[in-house]
Amino acid sequence: MNLRQSLYFTLVGLRGQPLKACYDRFLREDRNGIPPDTIKNLLIQLLEHCKKAVPYYGEIMGRIGSSFYDNPEEYLRSFPILTKDIVRSHRDTLSSNDLSQRKWYLNSSSGSAGEPVQCIQDWGHAVRSGAITLLYSKLAGGEIGDFQIKLWGSMRDILDGGDTWKARTICKIVNTTLLNAFRMTPDQMHNYIAILNTKRPKLILAYVEAIYELATFAERTGHEVVPQKAIMTSAGALHPTMRETIERVFKCPVFNRYGSREFGDIACERPGLKGLWVAPWGNYVEIVDEDGNRLPDGTEGEILVTSLVNFAMPFVRYAIGDRGVLSPHRDNDRAPYGQVLEAVVGRSCDTVRGKNGALVHGGYLGSLLYDKAWISRYQVIQKTLSCLVVRIVRSGSHYCQEELDDIAAKIRLAVGHDTEIVFEFVDEIIPTISGKYRHIISEIETLQDPHKCLQDEAPIGLKTQPS
To answer: What gap in Å lies between CA 258 and CA 276, rounded to an integer?
Structure first.
């Protein structure tokens, strides 16, 4: 253990959190073999607690019975789906009745376009989710104490954390430099590339949109970029075109990470594995159809997440607002024990719908716009079932009408030949208060719950603000 690791774990330990012991155990089990009954045992512990100490779930379990010991995963099918509206309206009964005996803190999604989802988390959650975050980073090449750069866009993390003496101290101890990705000007991006070229961190942790923007800026302006060692993207969908560009410019592997404020880091890519590995000590994932029925592995649907570690306010079968695919077990025989997300295709609301009912993912629209040298940024707004507005910030390069016609034609192939496509050239597209860019916005109220897009990224560091 290096000195920085020792100082970091000591500091966290002084706060009463056994992060080092938890991290060491996860690391040891990952190396030597994770017990195959890990998820089963954690689900049983969670359900026992829910029955005894959480009124909301106690009432549900009183109706459906307590036959969860043999097969808790199957038992979960009888649970209703937990939505953001239910969390808001049943906060008291979703809270554990032993909160007075726990060290706990409040966390919430960003609420970038409406009321945030607020949840209570205990220190057990902070320790386990923190250990999982450290393990994901280590597997990607970034050990605690190795120099890392964090290209982050959350104003809450930058302003409420990055400018405080405590946050600066933690960053200094763990040898991390914060670069603000909330709004990157050409001068800032020039400076960021110079920092990467000079310091060459072991790992770059970045908003996917921010690192992609930096990559396209470097290519567009002819900046020389020294090969980097590894990049971990988060807080957005990593589309294939984006991955190709980032890897081409920075000449290093890219590992995609998936998480949220409510759960911490849920899954992450790792060397030698196809898909995003769901660390089995933290969360359990299901994929369901629009009616809430569990889908077979390999089938795309809505993602439900159950936290295995937060007993202060358990989230069981929570509709996180994303769509994804679980990998069939046979496709990952070489994977460590646990689930593997074959893909996270984006927010449920990152879609447009045609008059014929066709649902089109934002990734398809992005593939038509990402690789255009004259497009710096874009946003597609669905006004009605028969009208889409494509807002474009130009990079300064030349374009021709034929390119616009080709984009419009390919959009119509997906959403309907009689769909009106309106192009608007704008000077700027403003990010949300969390620093993320909404590429797809639907103004058709019936298509989705507007709160589904409000989730923020998982915080990094000491997620330990006790009440």
So the answer is: 8
**Number of structural domains in the chain:** 2
Mean pLDDT per 10-residue section of the chain, whose length is 467 residues: 82 86 95 93 97 96 91 94 91 93 81 63 93 95 90 56 63 85 80 94 90 89 94 86 92 94 93 94 95 91 95 95 84 69 73 71 72 80 89 83 89 85 88 63 55 34 32
| Cβ count near 308 (within 10 Å) | 24
Same domain, residue pair 342 and 437 = no
Which residue, among 89, 133, 83, 114, has the nearest Cα to 434 in the 3D structure?
Answer: 114
Question: Does 212 reside within a domain?
Answer: yes
Q: Are residues 333 and 430 in the same domain?
A: no
Residue 71 tokens read as: 């097969």
- In terms of Cβ atoms closer than 10 Å to its own Cβ (0-12, 13-18, 19+), residue 152 is buried
Cβ(352)–Cβ(440) below 8 Å: yes
Question: Residue 437 belongs to what domain range?
Answer: 351-445
Q: What CATH number did the domain enclosing 433 receive?
A: 3.30.300.30
* Token pair in block for residue 117: 């989802």
Alpha-carbon Rg for the chain in angstroms: 22
Instruction: Please report whether residue 163 resides in a domain.
Output: yes
* Cβ atoms 202, 230 nearer than 8 A: yes
Run of H or E residues at 124: helix 123-140
pTM to 2 decimal places: 0.76
